[in-house]
Specification:
Blueprint: H1 2-7, E1 10-11, H2 12-17, H3 26-38, E2 42-47, E3 50-55, H4 59-74, H5 79-88, H6 94-109
Antiparallel strand pairs: 1-3, 2-3
């Protein structure tokens, strides 16, 4: 997706040219692009017997979609479980958590 956002519409061959060695096989990359299309992330324009693909979603929309999937699949669809995991793994301190809550309460008052 990053390649599409950075460079715009591309054919699979052009996308492949952007990879460093060892490059993925053309068919592998083509399959990945079609999966992205099936999931609604990219669209295509047909030119003869080939397709030029382009992004249908922004980086922000894509990120939200991935985050939602992670929360659903790994945290039982619970944002509370996500925050708890960060606190338990000491990636987020209790003081930082209090700061977040204070900011949310401040934003709600505005």
């Amino acid at each position: 997706m990053e390649q599409f956002w950075a460079k715009g519409p591309m054919f699979v061959r052009e996308l492949l040219d952007n990879y460093e060695e060892p490059k993925p096989h053309f068919n592998t990359l083509s399959t990945l692009v079609r999966i992205l299309e099936k999931n609604g992330f990219v669209g295509h324009r047909q030119y003869g017997n080939t397709y030029q693909y382009y992004p249908l979603v922004s980086e922000q929309e894509y990120g939200r979609s991935n985050l939602t999937g992670i929360i659903k699949n790994y945290f039982d669809n619970s944002y509370t479980n996500v925050v708890s995991a960060f606190v338990k793994e000491e990636k987020l301190s209790v003081d930082e958590l209090k700061e977040i809550i204070a900011q949310i309460e401040k934003d709600d008052q505005e």
